[in-house]
Amino acid sequence: MVVNTLACIALSAMSFFLASASDPSPLQDFCVAVNDTKTTVFVNGKVCKDPKVATADDFFFSGLRVPGNTSNKVGSMVTPANVAQIPGLNTLGISLARVDYAPYGLNPPHTHPRATEILTVLEGTLYVGFVTSNPDNRLICKVLYKGDVFIFPEGLIHFQLNVGKTKAVAIAALSSQNPGVITIANAVFGSKPAISADVLTKAFQVDKNVVDYLQSQF
């Protein structure tokens, strides 16, 4: 009897932890974000507009119809559709992003600290993958074609590479109104102020000249 009770308590605690590990559930039909916080209190997310004055534009964004400019070093562009673009997403725990890829363009290794991602290929052929956490660091990858879907678990490093000779387009759905993004190379070699070369030479087991060169690229 005691064992069963303890098991129930453990399961309840685990359920609470899992439930609290993502965006909180909305406490009303919607909570439209406002940027003026001078006369409001801090909340987990953004403060809310009075529902009575919400309009259709609070729930609308046309930006994903426009192809992103891929004329950059990596040959890709991410166009987000999160709470910053759609105030009506506040408290709803979801967002989207459009990703455009030039031929052989790369969405470089990155993580979303607050969201799992589900990617759908609309056009082109993508080589995608993610790396599991320590100590295994196992690469799980696949080539995707138009209509294919792939999952990137929350917090894990992942990437997409256009392996076709033509442009590619994908839509990503994310399990947070503000998933965040940390591009690994930018964070490590382009931080402000810069991470000490002593740290990076030891971490990557390379000469200081290599670290200096990589930091100069970011």
UniProtKB/TrEMBL annotation:
<comment type="similarity">
    <text>Belongs to the germin family.</text>
</comment>
<dbReference type="InterPro" id="IPR011051">
    <property type="entry name" value="RmlC_Cupin_sf"/>
</dbReference>
<feature type="binding site">
    <location>
        <position position="107"/>
    </location>
    <ligand>
        <name>oxalate</name>
    </ligand>
</feature>
<feature type="binding site">
    <location>
        <position position="117"/>
    </location>
    <ligand>
        <name>Mn(2+)</name>
    </ligand>
</feature>
<keyword id="KW-0464">Manganese</keyword>
<keyword id="KW-0325">Glycoprotein</keyword>
<keyword id="KW-0964">Secreted</keyword>
<feature type="domain" description="Cupin type-1">
    <location>
        <begin position="62"/>
        <end position="212"/>
    </location>
</feature>
<dbReference type="Pfam" id="PF00190">
    <property type="entry name" value="Cupin_1"/>
</dbReference>
<keyword id="KW-0052">Apoplast</keyword>
<keyword id="KW-1015">Disulfide bond</keyword>
<dbReference type="InterPro" id="IPR001929">
    <property type="entry name" value="Germin"/>
</dbReference>
<dbReference type="GO" id="GO:0030145">
    <property type="term" value="F:manganese ion binding"/>
</dbReference>
<dbReference type="InterPro" id="IPR014710">
    <property type="entry name" value="RmlC-like_jellyroll"/>
</dbReference>
<keyword id="KW-0732">Signal</keyword>
<dbReference type="InterPro" id="IPR019780">
    <property type="entry name" value="Germin_Mn-BS"/>
</dbReference>
<protein>
    <recommendedName>
        <fullName>Germin-like protein</fullName>
    </recommendedName>
</protein>
<feature type="binding site">
    <location>
        <position position="158"/>
    </location>
    <ligand>
        <name>Mn(2+)</name>
    </ligand>
</feature>
<dbReference type="GO" id="GO:0048046">
    <property type="term" value="C:apoplast"/>
</dbReference>
<feature type="binding site">
    <location>
        <position position="110"/>
    </location>
    <ligand>
        <name>Mn(2+)</name>
    </ligand>
</feature>
<feature type="binding site">
    <location>
        <position position="112"/>
    </location>
    <ligand>
        <name>Mn(2+)</name>
    </ligand>
</feature>
<comment type="function">
    <text>May play a role in plant defense. Probably has no oxalate oxidase activity even if the active site is conserved.</text>
</comment>
<feature type="signal peptide">
    <location>
        <begin position="1"/>
        <end position="21"/>
    </location>
</feature>
<dbReference type="InterPro" id="IPR006045">
    <property type="entry name" value="Cupin_1"/>
</dbReference>
<feature type="binding site">
    <location>
        <position position="112"/>
    </location>
    <ligand>
        <name>oxalate</name>
    </ligand>
</feature>
<feature type="disulfide bond">
    <location>
        <begin position="31"/>
        <end position="48"/>
    </location>
</feature>
<keyword id="KW-0479">Metal-binding</keyword>
<feature type="binding site">
    <location>
        <position position="117"/>
    </location>
    <ligand>
        <name>oxalate</name>
    </ligand>
</feature>
